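To the wet lab folks,

You asked to see what we're planning to order before we commit. Fair enough. Below is the target structure as tokens, and below that is the sequence we designed to fit it. If anything looks off to you, flag it before the synthesis order goes out.
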């Protein structure tokens, strides 16, 4: 047994130090990025925020709304083949250009992908290979084989939280390593297994490893307010994936429940009992659920939330003197804090 005792940080442990800047208006801050990928051949400007591949977040409707802002959506994997074919078959300029096809590493996941790929004439540009634990050999082998077959698509894969495996995944063919074990809003992995890693440190360490190899990372999970998204980018994340922050909108899917005059939407983890009952006929006897279910007050159209996330990012850039999102991490100095938000009049949601 070993103990690592250097401090590891979460979003709540830091703030960004403001810096003198010559920037005029926040309206001039450019949030688009044009990445060149280590393996894939795709160059298109995007605002590198991604709606999570959860069935109460990553829907076709969400993709449509977010594509208007050049934001990406990881479409959840539970849509039937016919629906996925219809979506990814859209002609040029459609929202499918901003959408990830998501899959796991089972034979049936690959067969389904192959069918959609074939029937859309290779209309898929972004792929998200998602497993709860990205440390298994089976996962790395799958990624290698996938990359050999599909040399040109952008492959995002995870989740992991350490530099060693980030490097291994990039060398195996991944363009964007998805980083985060346990920070998610409806995740119970840390509670059920005791496993995890503070998210900001995971981002900083994995980004450093990835960038050394010409790879990219996506910080996934744990962002609760626009300021957390800023910190994820400030720590070196190239992309940031959001579940809870995009949940409960008109476009999010999720059952609507009326209770005492308020409208709620169901939101649950993809490893929760609710999701496993829906898609896998229940929780298998050998495992525990690692996600929970909740009801969130309905939030209306996602455009308003997008506005506040992008507004927060633009404003943060002007505070630290970054002309574009690309410069944010270079301009970031984190200060460690013990308290950051004054909640004397209640949570400021
Ligand atoms: P959030 O933005 O809500 O904090 O985190 C979203 C992320 O939580 C997802 O992208 C995914 O990585 C993770 N997640 C979603 N469902 C589950 C679950 O049931 N269990 C665990 N451990 N993580 C989940």
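Sequence we intend to order:
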């Amino acid at each position: 047994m070993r103990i690592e005792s250097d401090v590891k940080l979460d979003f709540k442990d830091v703030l960004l130090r403001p810096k003198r800047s010559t920037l005029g208006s926040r309206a001039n801050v450019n949030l688009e990025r044009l990445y060149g990928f280590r393996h894939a051949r795709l160059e298109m400007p995007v605002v590198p925020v991604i709606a999570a591949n959860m069935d109460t977040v990553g829907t076709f409707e969400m993709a449509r709304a977010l594509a208007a802002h050049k934001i990406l959506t990881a479409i959840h994997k539970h849509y039937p083949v016919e629906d996925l074919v219809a979506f990814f078959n859209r002609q040029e300029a459609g929202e499918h250009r901003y959408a990830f096809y998501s899959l796991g590493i089972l034979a049936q996941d690959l067969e389904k992908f192959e069918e959609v790929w074939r029937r859309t004439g290779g209309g898929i540009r972004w792929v998200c290979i998602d497993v709860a634990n990205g440390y298994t050999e089976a996962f790395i082998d799958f990624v290698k084989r996938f990359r050999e077959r599909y040399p040109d698509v952008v492959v995002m894969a995870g989740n992991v939280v350490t530099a060693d495996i980030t490097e291994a995944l990039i060398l195996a063919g991944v363009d964007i390593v998805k980083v985060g074990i346990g920070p998610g809003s409806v995740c119970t992995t840390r509670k059920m297994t005791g496993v995890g890693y503070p998210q900001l440190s995971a981002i900083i360490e994995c980004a450093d490893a990835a960038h050394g190899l010409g790879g990219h990372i996506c910080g996934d999970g744990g962002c609760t307010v626009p300021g957390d998204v800023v910190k994820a980018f400030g720590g070196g994340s190239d992309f940031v994936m959001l579940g809870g922050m995009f949940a409960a909108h008109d476009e999010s899917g999720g059952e609507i429940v009326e209770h005492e005059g308020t409208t709620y939407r169901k939101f649950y983890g993809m490893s929760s009992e609710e999701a496993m009952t829906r898609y896998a006929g229940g929780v298998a006897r050998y495992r525990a659920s690692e996600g929970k279910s909740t009801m969130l007050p309905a939030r209306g159209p996602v455009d308003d939330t997008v506005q506040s996330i992008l507004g927060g990012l633009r404003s943060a850039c002007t505070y630290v003197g970054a002309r574009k999102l690309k410069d944010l991490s270079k301009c970031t100095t984190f200060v460690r804090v013990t308290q950051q938000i004054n909640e004397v009049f209640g949570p400021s949601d």
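Structural context that might help your review: The two ends are 42 Å apart (CA to CA). The chain is about 30% helix and 20% strand.

Thanks,
Computational group
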